[in-house]
Amino acid sequence: MNEWLEAYGTVEQNYGHLLLEQKSEINDDLVDALRPYFESAHLDAQEYFHAQVGISLHPDAAGGPPPVCYPACLPSKAQRGLFGEVVAGLVTEAYQDEFVGRHAWRVPIFLFREHDDVEKYLWALRFDPARTREIYGRHGSDFIGIALNAQGELVRVIAGEAKWRKSLTDSVVASLLLGPKEEDEDIGEMVHNGRGIWFEVNRDSPIPHGLRQLQRLLEQRDPDGHANAILSIDRAVFGQGPPPGRTNLVLIVGNGARRREPASVLIPWEQPPTEYTAPHDLQVVEVILDGGDALIDDLYSTLWQGA
Hints:
8 helices
């Protein structure tokens, strides 16, 4: 990560801002270095979706090569959304010392299998390879990370919103944060409708639904290794103890605008944006790339292929 990205981080009370700016070119070495993390992030969902639609990746499976393979067969737009969510987990684990609170974050499992429309898409594609279409987004937090105490119990959760955009201009980021523009009939001008990222983050429940989803996945995948975390999440959900602390993460990733100045930010770093009204710590991350589309295409076309 340090060879790929230059980090500019600040923390002011309960607000952290981290700018990650690409400093080396995107090449095969970078793709090879990132591939294991992306494969790990998608492994649970791949196994789940393939079992659901009746696909085996075993080399001795009958019927020859699989007709579809998650996530490589997903539309380009869907892969870019997945890329942003994986980057959110990668950055959270790699730069935790730069984050507000310096908590020991870990992302034990990603929630990609909870994307119902992906399963429907793969089911149709399994029987008709021509049935391609765009995929509806998954509801809820884009990813969930946790911090555990020495006993392995949950003490804090980080809930993330991660967005990819091809070009990160001021207007694009404003639409992400504040919602798309609509005509205000009272003033006769186009204004943001207020239903962007800040709207969703501010109104989320104190214990995010994604934490319950993560718990259920851990019960299936690693009940012994995360036994105390699973039990402590139950206690939090049923109100049998204090709720875990919470940090909200907003991550935007994409290519820098054409005339962008080095080290310039799109979200103010000195203090939390006035639109953020939730009572929890806030961490903002801006990941500025050059050639991000090619990186995503190379990554997702070679997962589990090693080349």
